[in-house]
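Memo subject: From amino acid sequence to discrete backbone structure tokens
Action wanted: Derive the backbone structure tokens from the amino acid sequence.
How to read it: Take the token row as a discrete description of the fold.
Attached in line: The record itself begins immediately under this heading.
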Amino acid sequence: MPGAWHYPGAFLLLNETIEACIDRIARKELGTTVVGNPRQIGFFEDLDGDPRGHVVDLVVEVELASEPVRTDETGGIKFFATVPDDVAFYHDRIMRASGLR
């Protein structure tokens, strides 16, 4: 969804652990690595808001080894104190559950 904000993420690959998926996302989408253990925020289900079909998102908070940087996978990186207007999918719901207002 070009031009809209969303959390970094990816589909879990066949035979990939959740931890390995989190590490892959950090490298590919944020240009850094994860330090320590992820903390689960929750899981969120969307039956029809994603053009690819029924999606279940496992949302985790992680500590990064360094500041995230733009990669070939990201159009931009920005930190928000409140939920922006232009949010993709149903990530505004996830942002609110993560503490943004």
User: Anything to note?
Assistant: The first helix runs from residue 18 to 30.
